[in-house]
Design a protein that fits this description.
The structure holds 3 protein chains of 3 kinds. Chain A is built from 13 helices and no strands. By secondary structure, chain A is mostly helical. The model of chain A has no long low-confidence stretch (mean pLDDT 89). Chain A has one domain: ABC transporter involved in vitamin B12 uptake, BtuC. Chain B is built from 14 helices and 2 strands. In chain B, strands 1-2 form a two-stranded antiparallel ribbon. Helices cover 74% and strands 2% of the residues of chain B. The longest helix of chain B has 30 residues. The N terminus and C terminus of chain B are likely disordered. In chain B, helix 1 packs antiparallel against helix 13 and helix 8 crosses helix 10. By secondary structure, chain C is an alpha/beta fold. Chain C has 2 domains: 160 residues, Response regulator (Rossmann fold); 142 residues, Response regulator (Rossmann fold), CATH 3.40.50.2300. In chain C, strands 1, 2, 3, 4, 5, 6 and 12 form a 7-stranded mixed β-sheet that branches. In chain C, helix 6 packs parallel to helix 13 and helix 9 packs antiparallel against helix 14. Chain C is globular and about 55 Å long. Classes of the chains: A mainly alpha, B mainly alpha, C alpha/beta. At the A-B interface, helix 4, helix 5, helix 11 and helix 13 of A face helix 6, helix 11, helix 13 and helix 14 of B.
Chain lengths: 310, 373, 382
């Protein structure tokens, strides 16, 4: 038990939690925005995966990780655009569209990575952790907060900015209206379709950044299905946040801590648990937390419902 | 499923599948694959000879079972994405029971593992149904999480408790006993796995359930409008849990049939994604038993063909995933509100035009009266 | 399109080469073409002089006996006008940066060295193993190779139905028959050497080992690694972890970071793509790593102390070579430390590299002459 407590306050554990939380924060805040505007994105995983792929593609071609990150956002937005076409323009079923996009992104990235990279692909231009001068030398806080990849700082900033926009600007209010009462939004002369489009594309970009953060700041390469279900964890996370961007940061850190713990249980022989069972830990925990939170918040009233002008 | 039944919906599905395949092939061509080699390989691998047809049938069995389960959920407005986990949990239970109870009579033995598999799968999915009904948790997310847990559970078992001690220690279970295995039927030109007949039987049973029982009607009412269902006095929670249990039971039987009729042992990589393909199967089959059976055959053929295309023409088999995705996406479009409205509007317009034409003709026949505009 | 065309040209060229050289001097041709892989020559051509000091008591030395020319009955000799066709069935993805990829990389070598025509199937689902073997066999592939233990029983099931084809299974321990053969490298012997190197390089006396799945052949290597380390430093703290995945780079990376944060200063991996994460973590945290498979120094030149060579590429090439040169006898083969399939890459990075090299050489000699016995432990000990 002592060793567990020691672990929780250890620099390495907390730093690792921060790292693992980054893709969840990015994708989670994006999904909050999209759901606030009434669009459910089961295809979040696919957007992340596509972002991972296009980021590597661009970083490989240009040798510039920043262009790679940008391309990751574009990749995510491209998948979001397909979703928008299906569910906003054509009012198709949001869940089925999302499932198709997950399948399609997995198939397409697997196929294209093989066609383009063959088997010889190695590390691409990527992000190393940024050591912020002076601050990164602080004990504990230094390595935990001030020696992370640029995505970490971007994720925190994006969550704050999106939170501000959502709750404090007219633009954000129209997002909320599009998810709560699209008819009312329409009656004041604002296009529901256009409002939902912007929210969805923001979500696509954020998910794409999330995917890029995995490929460019963690693994430096593209591997088939490399997002490995993080998009689904992010989906559950959104419900627990009760659709608040800043909460996504805290909840993502919580899930990431579970993830980091499950990896460490094996690595440090903390308990005689077979590895499959320790890998279950984050999944079970997500399920339990989701279970407690499911009834606590109320989803946007028009979430998942297509809207057309009467 | 005679031609007489080929209505507008069937035509739409066929068109979507054809368009989906065409787009997938276009992607292959655009990315430099040699279609003159790939296309025959695709076709021959699916239907080229007896062995190919047998592989198509064999591939269609598990996705038919799981697809039928997904369809029951869809009728009630539930998305069961958890087929994968249900398959693993059911197959694991069957392995454990077959090892614990060495039944000698093949009929009893097979019946036993089918029943326990159905129970295990039913419980696994039923848990998601319960979470939906009583905790308000979205079944899409819970079934996906339960997938991961179920697969890890099976993985733990084949590395530990049920590992084959005689297999050089490779992490897979011992082969299930002889009596537990499903036979293969020799039908002259081809052989058909008994599991295929079971799958057809399941399709018939699901057809009866959905189209000929009160439960089927209730499920549909629930799927069309939960409010209406509650208003009509239906026990919504019971229906939700029940639909998920049925869906899981079918997926579980699918897993056991794969175990008893094909792989004979459980391993980490037992299911290559049957649970996900089954969703496409159910959607293309429009959640109707007959449609699901046919679409399972189609996707079985697609999988068999794509694998053979990879082996012979060296085109990555991930192509079949892309084809599935395109088909499902096109199908959403085809069934989208907007298109439906558009079709309805067009139909109305053409009906009006026809009426007008009729009136015109009538008017022409009776020149005494003036033209009606 | 161009790839296709190139492939066709390669096959044509290969056919021409084979046709031109298919006289009686078939063996001469093969050995003549071995230049690109010079280390391969001693193993394949001169196994006779060395009387296999390490047969591991399992099989009485499979290779030496039919070295003379029984070429008459081999497929290569039967139809010399057509290129031999070889198919490889991979259980995982051909770019897994390890087990599957290394085997995959044997295909171009087979094409250039033996003039064969090749095809492959990657990430083959378990439920298609039999189908893949049968497809390739009935599609005219003379040799079908299944990369990995699990194909042993598939070969045993399929081979009798295709008597004209040969089924080879690298990394399986028990497969013999008229048209099938298992080839097993004694990888745990090399792992012992990796353990020796790790123990001689560590300063904290804490060593980490990270593996993918707890397959017996993997467990045996991790255990041998620990035994090798303790042979040098009896009090060394060796932590071994099984990730449960070969693909999850992030899991490898975080696990390695966790180990390093607890004081480990050298990590060893058998984890393919996830192992890349292990090496990345070592590089970022400034500790040493030991690679696996090929020489992985290129991935992180300042981090990789050495690599345990388990040359899957060569294993596949050698298994096919036996068929091409007529020495195929359908008996299970064991490839020991005396073959170029196994060994250690040069030791780099540290100051006492020469000393470590010497320690490795000494241990290797001990294993080869039998004075050091490396047990095959199939179950994780902790």
């Amino acid at each position: 038990m002592d060793s567990l407590i020691e672990l929780f306050i250890s620099t390495a554990f907390v730093a690792s939690t921060m790292r693992l939380a980054v893709p969840l924060i990015l994708a989670g805040t994006g999904e909050v925005i999209s759901e606030r505007a009434g669009i459910l994105n089961i295809g979040l995983e696919g957007m992340m995966l596509m972002g991972s792929f296009t980021a590597v593609l661009a970083a490989d071609a240009t040798g510039d990780p920043w262009l790679g990150a940008l391309a990751g956002a574009v990749g995510g937005m491209a998948v979001a655009a397909v979703h928008g076409g299906i569910v906003i323009v054509w009012s198709g079923d949001q869940i089925v569209s999302g499932l198709a996009l997950n399948l399609g992104a997995l198939g397409l990235t697997t196929y294209l990575s093989r066609r383009i990279f063959g088997t010889g692909q190695s590390e691409v231009a990527h992000f190393e952790p940024i050591d912020i001068p002076l601050l990164s030398d602080l004990p504990f806080l230094g390595p935990v907060l001030f020696a992370q990849s640029p995505f970490f700082y971007f994720a925190l900033a994006a969550a704050a900015v999106l939170s501000f926009v959502l709750f404090r600007t007219r633009f954000g209010l129209s997002w909320q209206a599009a998810g709560e009462d699209p008819d009312a939004l329409d009656s004041v002369g604002i296009s529901v379709g256009r409002t939902r489009w912007t929210a969805l594309l923001v979500c696509g970009a954020m998910a794409g950044f999330g995917g890029a953060s995995i490929s460019l700041a963690q693994l430096f390469t593209f591997i088939e299905n490399m997002t490995g279900g993080q998009g689904f964890i992010a989906l559950a996370l959104v419900i627990v946040t009760r659709w608040r961007p800043m909460w996504a940061v805290g909840i993502a850190l919580f899930f990431a801590a579970a993830d980091a713990l499950s990896l460490r249980i094996q690595a440090l022989d903390l308990a005689a648990i077979p590895f499959q069972l320790s890998l279950m830990l984050p999944l079970v925990l997500t399920l339990v937390v989701y279970g407690f939170a499911a009834r606590a918040g109320r989803p946007p009233a028009a979430l998942g419902r297509p809207w057309t002008k009467a | 499923m005679g031609l007489a039944l080929l209505g507008r919906e069937h035509f739409v599905v066929l068109a979507v599948m054809a368009l989906g395949l065409a787009l997938s092939l276009l992607m292959l061509a655009l990315t430099g694959a040699d279609l003159s080699e790939a296309l025959p390989a695709l076709f021959n691998g699916a239907l080229g000879d007896a062995r190919a047809i047998e592989e198509t049938l064999s591939q269609s069995i598990p996705i038919m079972f799981v697809g039928l389960g997904v369809s029951i959920g869809l009728r009630a407005g539930l998305f069961n994405i958890g087929g994968e986990g249900q398959i693993y949990v059911a197959a694991l239970t069957a392995v454990v029971v077959s090892q614990a109870l060495p039944v000698g009579n093949p009929v009893l033995a097979v019946a036993l593992v089918l029943v326990v598999g159905a129970m295990a799968g039913g419980l696994w999915a039923g848990a998601a149904g319960w979470m939906r009904a009583y905790l308000g948790m979205n079944e899409v997310i819970t079934t996906i999480l339960l997938n991961g847990i179920g697969i890890l559970l099976a993985g733990w078992a084949v590395h530990g408790p049920v590992r084959d001690t005689d297999g050089g220690g490779y992490p897979w279970s011992e082969k299930i006993g002889e009596p537990f295995r499903l036979p293969v039927m020799d039908l002259g030109p081809i052989t058909v796995p008994a599991g295929f007949l079971l799958a057809l039987g399941a399709a018939a049973a699901v057809w009866v359930l959905l189209e000929r029982t009160v439960i089927g009607v209730e499920l549909r009412t629930l799927g069309d409008s939960p409010d209406a269902a509650a208003y009509a006095g239906l026990r919504v929670t019971m229906l939700v849990v029940g639909a998920m249990v049925c869906a899981g039971a079918l997926a579980g039987v699918g897993g056991v049939v794969e175990l008893a009729g094909k792989q004979e042992r459980l391993s980490d990589f037992f299911s290559p994604g049957y649970g996900f393909t089954a969703i496409a199967v159910a959607l293309v089959g429009n959640a109707r038993a007959g449609g699901v059976a046919l679409s399972a055959l189609f996707f079985g053929a697609l999988t068999a063909g794509a694998s053979s295309m990879e082996r012979i023409a060296q085109v990555p088999a991930a192509t079949s995933l892309v084809a599935q995705a395109i088909i499902v996406a096109l199908l959403v479009l085809a069934r989208s509100d907007r298109l439906q409205r558009w079709v309805r509007a067009r139909r109305q317009i053409s009906r009006m035009l026809e009426e007008q034409a009729l009136n015109d003709r009538l008017a022409a026949d009776r020149p005494a009266e003036g033209r009606v505009v | 399109m161009t790839r296709k065309l190139l492939g066709l040209l390669a096959v044509l060229a290969a056919t021409a080469m084979l046709a031109a050289s298919c006289g009686d001097d078939e063996t001469a041709t093969t050995s003549g073409q071995q230049e690109p892989a010079p280390t391969a020559a001693p193993a394949a051509d001169a196994p006779d002089p060395e009387p296999e000091p390490e047969p591991a008591a399992e099989e009485p030395a499979a290779e030496p006996e039919p070295e003379p020319e029984p070429a008459a009955e081999e497929p290569a000799a039967e139809e010399p006008e057509e290129a031999l066709r070889v198919a490889l069935v991979l259980p995982g993805s051909a770019n897994d940066k390890g087990f599957n990829q290394l085997a995959f990389e044997a295909l171009p070598i087979l094409e250039s060295e033996f003039g064969v025509e090749t095809a492959y199937s990657e990430a083959t689902p378990v439920n298609e193993y039999v189908q893949a073997f049968e497809d390739f066999a009935s599609d005219g592939y003379d040799i079908v190779i299944g990369q990995g233990f699990q194909f042993g029983e598939i070969a045993a099931e399929v081979a009798p139905n295709f008597p004209d084809n040969i089924f080879l299974v690298p990394n399986t321990t028990n497969l013999s028959g008229t048209n099938m053969q298992g080839i097993q490298p004694a990888s745990h012997h090399a792992a012992y050497l990796a353990g020796v190197a790790a123990a001689m390089a560590t300063e904290s006396n804490q060593i980490g080992g990270i593996a993918g799945h707890a397959f017996p052949i993997i467990v045996a290597q991790m255990e041998a690694f620990a035994i090798g380390a303790r042979s040098v430093a009896p009090d060394a703290d060796v932590t071994i972890t099984y990730l449960g995945t070969f693909d999850d780079v992030e899991a490898g990376k975080e696990t390695a970071r966790a180990m390093i944060s607890s004081g480990v200063d050298i990590v060893y991996h058998i984890a393919d793509a996830a192992g890349i994460g292990v090496i990345q973590a070592a590089r970022e945290e400034g500790v040493l790593a030991i690679g696996w498979g090929g020489d992985q120094t290129e991935i992180a030149p300042d981090t990789i102390l050495t690599s345990q060579i388990v040359n899957q590429t060569l294993l596949v090439v050698e298994s096919v070579r036996a068929v091409v040169d007529g020495s195929f006898d359908g008996q299970q083969r064991l490839m020991g430390l005396d073959t170029p399939v196994l060994g250690m890459a040069p030791v780099r990075v540290v100051d006492n590299a020469a000393e470590i090299e010497a320690g490795i050489a000494e241990a290797k000699a001990g294993i080869l002459d039998g004075s050091i016995e490396v047990p095959f432990i199939a179950e994780p000990s902790n």
